[in-house]
Amino acid sequence: MLNKEYWQTLNQKQTNLKKKIAQDPWRLAYHLMPETGWMNDPNGLCQFNGTIHFYHQYVPQEAAGGLAPHWGHKTSTDFVSFKEEPVFLSPNHAYDRDGVYSGSAFVENDQIHFFYTGNVKQPGDHDYTYSGREQNTVHVVSNDGFSINKQEVVIPHAAYPSGFTDHIRDPKVFKRGDTYYMILGARTVNNEGKILIYDSTNLSDWHYRGIFFGGMDDFGYMWECPDYFQIDGQDVLLFSPQGIPNQRESFQNRFHSGYIIGQVNWETFTFHESSPFRELDHGFDFYAPQTFSDEQERRILWGWMGLGDTLPEYSNPTVARGWQHAATLPRELQICEGKLLQQPIAELQRLRGKQQHKQIQSPACEQSFQTPTSAYEMIITINQNEPRWQIELLEDTLLDYDGTTLTMSHGPSGYGRKHRRVKIDELKHLHIFVDHSSIEIFLNHGTACLTSRIYPKKRQSAMGLTGFTDCSIDYWPLASE
Ligand code: FRU
C-alpha cells in the first residue's frame, strides 16, 4: 500500500533531518534515539543468536510524530554499541494502514515470532475510541529479525469480546508449559483499564480466556503496554495506565507506568496482586516500558524516555532540530523486599572514561566540582544522614532532599517543566547518568528512578553540593565506542 512516492518523500525528508540532527548538541551520546524523526515505545525486544534486537515505534520523516508509525530497528551484540538497521515493519496492509503499533517478540526454535497491533482508522465522523477504529493483532514470523517469512492477522478486531471500546492493543506473548499466552491492554465501554488474556497451542490460533487483571477501582480509563514475567518465582505485571489523577508526590505526569507483584492462578487465568501499584519512574520522561529475558536470563527493561500528550506548558525544542524522544538505558530488574529494583546493566561500565574521585568531609559548606563533559556517569555515596542537602547540576537542575522527599527542579532548561518529586527514606546512594539533554537517576541502588529530558544551553557545567558532611563522588565521562 505504501507506494514509491511515499518512500521517496520519506527518504528526502530523512536526508534533510539528518543534516539538522548532525549539528545538534542536544543529540544523545549513549542513549538510543531515533536516527531521524519521532521515536516512542520500545517494541519486540529480544536476543536472538547473540544479537540484541531493539525495535521501536518510529515516524522517521516527522519529528512531531502524528503519522502512521513503523517499527524502527537497532541491533547490538553488547548493549553498548548499536547499529541502525532498516525499518522492520511498515503500515503497508489494509489491517495496519494507520500504524504498526506496539508489540512484543517471542523467540523459539530458531525463529522470532512478533505480535503487534495493526491500527486502522475508518474514514467518516468518528471519535476513534467508541467507533471508527480497528486494532488487529498481527503475527509476524522471522528467521533472522530482519526479513519477514510470514505475516498474518491472528485476532481481527471484530473477534474481540464485547464490552470494550475500540482500544485493545499492545500484545505481549510468553510461554508456560506447552501453552502460549498473550496479554493485551484494553479500555472498557465504561472507561476502565483492563488486561485481557488469550492462549494458544500454535501461536496462530488464539482463544480468549477472560480478564487477566482489572480489579483496581478508579485506576484510569485505559491500560497500555502490559507485560508479565516472573522473577524468583514471583509474578510481576507491568502496565501503563492512563487517566489517574495527579498527586503531589506520585502520578505527577499525564500518563504513568508501573507494576504490581502477585500470583497468577493459571486455572482461572487471573492475576492476584499482593503489592500496591508502584510507579517505575518519577521523572517527566518515562512511559510504555517493555522487558525481555536476555541470553544470560537477566530480565531487562527499556522504557520510552518521553511521553505522549504532554502538558501544554512544555515544548520539546529538539523537534526543530529534526528529532524527538529516546529510550532509557537498559535496566536490569530484580526483586528485593517485595519491590522491583532497577539498575543500569553492567555492560554500560564499558562506556566509562577516566575516573575521578572526590571525598567531601565536614564542614558542611558549599562544594563545587567541574564536570568536563555533559555526557557522564556519577555515583554519590552519602555516608552521613543530613537534615537537608542540595545538588546543582547541568546549568539549572536542582536536586533537593529534605529527609523524606527528593525534589528535582528545572529552570529554563526544562522548557516549561518545573518539579518532580519522589518520597524516599534514607537516601544513601545516587547513581546519575547525564547525556547532553537527559538525566536518569537511580536512587538507593534502583529502589526508585527519576528520568527527564532537559535542554541546557551551556555544554560544560559545574556542579555544586550543599549540606553534606560526609559523602564521596565518583565521576566518569562517558562516550559510546
Ligand atoms: C503507548 C502507545 C501504545 C500504542 C503505541 C502507538 O505509547 O499509545 O498503546 O501501541 O503507543 O504508537
TrEMBL record:
- What protein does this entry describe? Sucrose-6-phosphate hydrolase
Q: InterPro entries, from UniProt? A: ConA-like_dom_sf, GH32_Enzymes, Glyco_hydro_32, Glyco_hydro_32_AS, Glyco_hydro_32_C, Glyco_hydro_32_N, Glyco_hydro_beta-prop_sf, Suc6P_hydrolase
Q: In which pathway does it act?
A: Glycan biosynthesis; sucrose metabolism
Assigned keywords, A-Z: Carbohydrate metabolism, Cytoplasm, Glycosidase, Hydrolase
Query: Which reaction is catalysed here?
Result: Hydrolysis of terminal non-reducing beta-D-fructofuranoside residues in beta-D-fructofuranosides
* Gene Ontology terms describing biological process: sucrose metabolic process
Please report the stretch or stretches of sequence annotated as the Glycosyl hydrolase family 32 N-terminal domain: 31-344
- Where in this chain does the record put each Glycosyl hydrolase family 32 C-terminal domain? 347-465
Assigned protein family? Belongs to the glycosyl hydrolase 32 family.
Q: What is this enzyme's EC?
A: 3.2.1.26
The record's SUPFAM superfamilies line, in alphabetical order, gives: Arabinanase/levansucrase/invertase (SSF75005), Concanavalin A-like lectins/glucanases (SSF49899)
User: What CDD domains does the database record attribute to this sequence?
Assistant: GH32_ScrB-like (cd18623)
Primary role: Enables the bacterium to metabolize sucrose as a sole carbon source.
Please give the Gene Ontology molecular function terms for this protein. Answer: beta-fructofuranosidase activity
- State the organism named in the record: Candidatus Enterococcus testudinis
> PANTHER family attached here?
BETA-FRUCTOSIDASE (PTHR43101:SF1)
